[in-house]
Design goal:
Helix content: 55-70%
Shape: extended
Strand order of the largest sheet: 1-2
Oligomer: single chain
Strand content: under 5%
Number of strands: 2
Order of helices and strands: HHHHHHHHHHHHHHHHEEHH
């Protein structure tokens, strides 16, 4: 583990309630020098270490973090002892190792985290102790990794106990990214609540796929054929989920995909495909704006409700048409009767 003196200096100053100017005056240096020490831009001269240590009432070893280094080395030894037992599924031996580690380092949250995991392997046997350790981490620890471990275990423990409301409460304490990606909340929901949550996740994943491919295609110069192939793959994914053709809100995403396809076919000077994609972009944008609110029926989203957005009249041009009216890519079909009729 790398221990930085700058972190120690900041911690000691905060604990003492002193200022950088106080330490600077004690050491006979500028306040700017102390500021650079704390930012890790420079190190104090070795001859100043005893003065700094005396100012904060610590040893030079403590100032340099030597004790912390030795502590982390000892903890790493415990981890190394536990690893082969863990690999062989010898949970009693793993627990013995981490019980010993916890006895020596009862205030290290990494040790508490590993001890909690070891206890949790025994299901109900040490349940009260697992809950106590998890709650202690949430009360006292600010590091994200032990906190999320505690949230996970407390969620699953309370779910196993049948206290789904308490489990849900813990699950909601997790970072939003972890809730959506690791299925923590899903593990404690049931019935319509679980159905709605999973359908929402599915829709968000579709958005992520669409956006990720968009960014990917900006990473370098792709050929029109490559972009067409990539966009069509995204289109097929939407079609797999909404397999009855009713895309609900995502009609607007489908319209955007067809606009993107039309641009690439325009680069290839493919008149028929440009007009075909323009017509499909128009169709899906029109449905998005004009379809009434209704319940979707495709298997994976069945029962979810599409709430219509702002309605517009048939005589109002949709957003999709701005692309085809203004972009020079489409100049070569601008006078085509089918294209004119489409935009009209």
């Amino acid at each position: 583990m790398n221990i930085s003196i700058n972190d120690t200096l900041k911690r000691l100053r905060t604990a003492r309630g002193s200022t950088q100017e106080d330490l600077a005056a004690h050491c006979g240096v500028s306040m700017q020098a102390v500021s650079k020490w704390e930012r890790g831009e420079r190190y104090p001269d070795i001859t100043l270490l005893p003065k700094i240590a005396a100012f904060y009432g610590v040893t030079v070893d403590e100032l340099l973090g030597v004790g912390e280094i030795r502590k982390q080395e000892k903890i790493a030894e415990y981890d190394a002892r536990a690893r082969p037992h863990n690999n062989r599924g010898e949970i009693e031996q793993v627990l013995d190792v981490y019980r010993e580690a916890y006895a020596e380092f009862p205030n290290d949250f990494g040790v508490i985290q590993n001890y909690m995991y070891a206890l949790d392997k025994f299901d109900e046997k040490y349940r009260d102790e697992v809950i106590a350790l998890g709650e202690r981490i949430l009360r006292e620890c600010t590091d994200s990794e032990p906190r999320y471990s505690a949230i996970q275990i407390l969620t699953y423990v309370h779910s196993a106990m049948g206290d789904r409301e308490k489990a849900k409460e813990y699950a909601m304490m997790a970072p939003k990214s972890a809730i959506s990606s690791n299925g923590l909340l899903e593990a404690v929901l049931t019935g319509d609540e679980l159905l709605g949550r999973t359908q929402l996740n599915l829709m968000l994943e579709l958005d992520d796929i669409d956006l990720t491919v968009t960014w990917m295609l900006r990473s370098r110069e792709f050929t029109p054929d490559e972009i067409i192939a990539a966009r069509e793959k995204v289109l097929h994914i939407f079609e797999i989920v909404y397999d009855d053709g009713d895309f609900g809100f995502y009609h607007t995403r489908i319209s955007g995909i067809y606009i993107s396809l039309a641009r690439q076919y325009a680069r290839l000077k493919n008149r028929e495909k440009v007009i075909e994609c323009a017509a499909l972009a128009q169709k899906h944008e029109k449905i998005y704006h004009e379809a009434p609110s209704h319940t979707l029926n495709a298997l994976l989203v069945r029962g979810s409700v599409y709430e219509t957005g702002n309605t517009i009249t048939n005589n109002t041009k949709h957003d999709w048409s701005v692309t085809f009216l203004n972009e020079a890519l489409f100049d070569f079909v601008r006078g085509d009767p089918e294209f004119i009729a489409l935009l009209g």
